[in-house]
Specification:
GO terms for molecular function: transmembrane transporter activity. This protein is mainly α. The chain is built from twelve helices and no strands. Helix 4 crosses helix 11.
Length: 280
């Protein structure tokens, strides 16, 4: 007897579940869980990391990310406006900047500011200044493309209507196009904040004082200080999740409420309504 599509789907799902359960059982049997506990969850030695891992490491990570994102957002907005400007020189400058800093590893920017700035210009930047500036330089290149896409997603008719009413181009841009663009790009901007949070770990390559340490440095130093295997890095990773998971949830919520998704839902309802009426 031939199986229906639904029966085949159920059979396939059952086979996959059985294979998964078998793999889990095998792993439970063959893994040395005592060694795993000693290497990754040896909490007693690393309790000495608290509360500094929160009050110093987590706090510094948040500070570096916050200032890097704010200045990156300002720079990205300027670059996005330059990318869509009618003056070609502005477009060339913005394009070169964006392509350059999107094309090189972020760690090079950290090294250049941490070591090259003092050698070339005699600047002695603090850890906060180095981290925030490096994150802002790199973040601006990515944020610019996100904001540019948002600006171009705003219907042109709104700007044309504002100009027809006698509103100057700059005022129409500031009061109509930019606010709507930011509403559109809020979810991807939140994802950029998550990426900058993780990139803040690169500051450890330039060295820092203990009071300026962020989570990655504290985790790396904890491996040698506490002889607790990889547990200090696990603690640092959990602290990163304290920052990134809420931001990920916020991004999904904003994406669900975004104008684009709301318009798609309305279109689906409008398309389904005639079908429903016809069936009735």
């Amino acid at each position: 007897m031939a199986l229906s599509n639904r029966d085949r789907a159920r059979l396939s799902l059952g086979i996959q579940a059985a294979i998964f359960a078998g793999v889990v059982v095998v792993l439970i049997i063959i893994i040395d869980w005592a060694a795993v506990q000693r290497s990754f969850f040896n909490l007693e030695p690393v309790m000495a990391m608290f509360p500094e891992v929160i009050t110093v490491g987590l706090w510094n990570t948040v500070r570096y990310t916050f200032f890097g994102f704010i200045f990156g957002l300002i720079g990205g907005t300027v670059l996005a406006l330059m990318r869509i400007a009618s003056f070609p020189v502005y477009r060339w400058i913005a394009t070169i900047y964006i392509e350059f800093f999107r094309g090189i590893p972020a760690i090079l920017v950290f090294i250049a500011l941490g070591f090259g700035a003092s050698l070339a210009f005699g600047l002695n930047l603090s850890t906060l200044q180095t981290a925030s500036t490096a994150l802002a330089i790199v973040g601006a290149a990515y944020i610019a493309e996100t904001i540019r896409a948002g600006l171009q997603a705003v219907p042109k008719g709104q700007m044309e209507a504002a100009r027809a009413l006698g509103m100057p181009a700059w005022r129409a841009m500031v009061t109509i196009q930019i606010p709507q663009a930011f509403r559109i790009v809020l979810p991807p901007l939140t994802n950029e904040a998550i990426l900058l949070t993780k990139d803040s770990s690169l500051i450890f390559v330039v060295g820092m004082a203990g009071s300026a340490a962020e989570l990655t440095k504290m985790g790396r130093d904890g491996i040698t200080m506490y002889q607790a295997g990889m547990t200090p890095l696990v603690v640092a990773g959990i602290c990163y999740l304290i920052i990134t998971v809420p931001l990920s949830i916020l991004a999904r919520r904003m994406e669900e409420r975004s104008p684009a998704r709301s318009s798609r839902k309305r279109q689906k309802k409008a398309t389904a309504s005639p079908v429903t009426s016809g069936v009735a």
